[in-house]
């Protein structure tokens, strides 16, 4: 790839940065746009993709931690049920086996209880499960000042009515054509 400064010094024409990133078919699309609008579209697209990535990562991390919390809760309930519902039998070999399994159930119950308490005390519930739910509303509150909003279904930027319709439509076309490539 040619360096822009050395290319200009040799007299070669500079290609738009998006042409080197996405291929030649995009360069034709980009060349059809005026330079100022192309830069705005490129910046908006990079901003939108970063927001989409953040939203998807937070959702996947939230699902992971919900699974961990559910597994921990099920382990606690299962070991508690086994520990407190076991009844003693009259044979000595069954009693020895039952007592060793009761000891294991007691250890699992204590460990699961401790981990569940630490999950809430150390703030994992707040930071891993509750805060990702507030990401989109707080982001939209900030983007509102720029007449933008992050859409709920497709994680696309949605322009408010204050933005000219022609600009919003041309950006949507630009974004769709780049995503198809």
What does it look like?
With 181 residues, this protein is mostly helical. It has one domain (37-49, 61-180). It is built from eight helices and two strands, in the order αααααααββα. Strands 1-2 form a two-stranded antiparallel sheet. A hairpin with a 6-residue loop joins strand 1 (148-150) and strand 2. Helix 4 runs antiparallel to helix 5 (92-121). The chain is rod-shaped. The chain starts with a helix and ends with a helix. The relative contact order is 0.11.
Keyphrases for this structure?
cytoplasm, 181 residues, transmembrane, disordered N terminus, mainly alpha, two-stranded antiparallel sheet
Structural class: mainly alpha
> Largest sheet at a glance?
2 strands, antiparallel
- How many structural domains in the coordinates? 1
- Roughly how many Å is the radius of gyration? 29 Å
- Estimate what percentage of residues fall within beta strands: under 5%
Number of helices: 8
* Shape summary: rod-shaped
Give me the count of strands: 2
Q: Helical proportion?
A: over 70%
Spatial strand arrangement across the major sheet: 1-2
Stretches with pLDDT under 50, minimum 5 residues: 1-27
- Whole-number average pLDDT? 80
Main location: cytoplasm
Protein name: Transmembrane protein 188
Pfam families: Spo7 (PF03907)
GO molecular function: protein phosphatase regulator activity
């Amino acid at each position: 790839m040619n360096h822009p400064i050395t290319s200009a010094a040799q007299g070669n024409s500079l290609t738009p940065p998006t042409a080197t990133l996405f291929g030649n078919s995009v360069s034709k699309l980009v060349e059809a746009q005026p330079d100022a609008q192309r830069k705005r579209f490129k910046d908006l697209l990079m901003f939108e993709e970063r927001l989409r990535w953040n939203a998807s990562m937070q959702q996947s991390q939230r699902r992971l931690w919900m699974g961990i919390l559910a597994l921990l809760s099920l382990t606690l309930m299962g070991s508690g049920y086994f520990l407190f519902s076991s009844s003693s039998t009259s044979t000595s070999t069954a009693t020895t086996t039952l007592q060793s399994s009761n000891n294991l159930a007691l250890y699992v119950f204590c460990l699961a209880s401790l981990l569940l308490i630490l999950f809430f005390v150390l703030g994992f519930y707040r930071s891993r499960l509750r805060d990702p739910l507030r990401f989109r509303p707080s982001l939209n509150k900030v983007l509102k000042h720029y007449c933008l909003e992050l859409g709920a279904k497709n994680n696309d930027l949605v322009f408010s009515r204050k933005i000219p319709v022609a600009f919003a439509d041309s950006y949507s076309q630009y974004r769709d054509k780049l995503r198809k490539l």
